[in-house]
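notes to self, project folder thing:

trying the whole complex as one job this time. last attempt i did each chain seperately and stitching them together was a nightmare. two parts in total, labels are on each line so i dont mix them up again. if this works i'll redo the older ones the same way
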Amino acid sequence: MNQVLSYLPRPDLQVLIETLQAAGFHCVGPRVVDGAIGYGALDDAAQLPWGVTEMQAPGHYRLSDSDTPRCFAWANGPQALKPFLFAPRENLWTSRREADGGLHCDETLPEAMPLAVIGVRPCDLAALALHDQHFLRQAVSDPYYARRREALFLVAVNCTHPAATCFCVSTGDGPRATYGYDLALTELDDGYLVEAHSERGRAIAAVLPLAAEEEAQVAAADVALQQAADSQTRRLPGTHLQAPLFANLNHPRWDEVAERCLSCGNCTSVCPTCFCYSAHDQPTLAGDLVEHYREWDSCFTQGHSYIHGITLRAETAPRYRQWLTHKLGSWHAQYGRSGCVGCGRCIAWCPVGIDLTEEAAAICGEVAPA
Amino acid sequence: MNNKPRVAVHKFSSCDGCQLAFLNLGEALLELAELVDFAHFLEAGFVDAAAQVDIAFIEGSVSTPDDAARLLAIRANSRYLITIGACATAGGVQALRNLADAAAWTAAVYASPEFIHSLATSTPIRAQVKVDLELWGCPVNSRQVIAAIRALLFGVAPVTENDKVCMECKRRGNVCVLVARGEPCMGPVTRTGCGALCPSFGRDCYACYGPAENVNGAALANRFIGLGLAPAEVARRFLSINNAAPEFNAVGRAWQKAEPHDG
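result (full assembly):
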């Protein structure tokens, strides 16, 4: 394993961007946008968030500058890959009234351009795998998601800077990427260790100006990732919480958390695995054409549980319970694992700072390892 | 002349801004005129206040003795009655007088207060007559008005938009101004419909669309205190354009009482 060509000196990060562009990809990567790290168009490595770091706490997110020479010295921002694949709002089809009175429907599939995303965290790769399972590996796969998914090239960056809100170690989804990427980088002070994990990834890596990696570099990366894992203080009370959650459906904590919860849907919107949507028809004023949209919904809205004149979950306590029991509980029966990847976004981006790990622990108690 | 549905747009105590949802339609206004007849719409030049209509849109709150009498006649003449805007739906910013001594304000503002004939309170249309649909907003926008008319033309109930602004804000990809900047954003208790307009330009929502369904104003107010707002500032967040909406009124008044120097 020694003397593998897998070290990319920092000045050559630009070559990675240009190589991906030459291969036909539009590149996006982390950018500072409106006080947070989000994905934006990336043409020049100088656009990356050099020296930027961030502080996250329940209901709190702030960027700051530091003297680090790195550009991936931060934990994830408010959105994962979800908006790229499961569009926040999307026209699925249109229907038109024909002259003979009949209806004509047209599917409006997206034109997906090849997209290379640089800087994907391992938690978000785990979330992507769950979305692939949900959107692609059901009895009917989702062609809108599929088109964009096929056009996606993923450059993961192993996570050396988890936030205080992160708990991917306890869900088994980080801080090191182990699957689901084309290339993975580990950032060091002077460059990047590069791993290829797919044919496409190896093809890109083959034309990068890679140098032989040194043992000290590999050791430094291992130490950094171990420190990242050790620094996480939050955790879920177990990896399989279906039994304890469903044994506690009448726990007083549901009412207690509902007193604090705004039922605003921010947690589900930033969650990289939440996939609920609602459907709406938008007719033209003349009424001869209707566009059918789907858009992100949430188990915290009234519409989510509205059935034939009845709102099943009119109040916040049953909505929060629906979210947690599905996300951490019945997801196991549906998808073979928990729906939580430990990214901590629901904690940081909750306007009132409700902590999912704290609520799960209060409701489940301590759970014996599976 | 034909069988087109007849529409009236009535103004009560208001700034006229919601009627612009029609006038700002541009070319679509001509298209709308092909679908319905405007029987009464003063700003557009149609005058027949006593017309029998299929849909009456009402802008403004009940604020004068004349408002109250006029409203009963409109209800009797209209198949569907739809309120447009914060004034008609919640009493408007002028309902702030419900919390104060209206006569004293009138005396302080006007040189000859004896010419002012207003009620002691400003109330929403719903407090006087049955309302079939309420469109919130200060002002409402053209999209809301058109969606309501289009649904009724189809013969279906218009869709009620009652989610929080946060849902739309996240769909638009905005960074949360409350979490990332500590702004006292009212989005988590405010009804959607504006397209998360203010947060999309980096400022905090000020609740001009009124309360969403299932709001927890008390929890958001506690959060504002945590962000460093004084009790009087928290009260003002809730006692603004939609101060008379019960969900906002209760929270605002509670924090008003918590501040001995603020009213």
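what i see at first glance: The mean pLDDT of chain A is 96.
need to look closer tmrw
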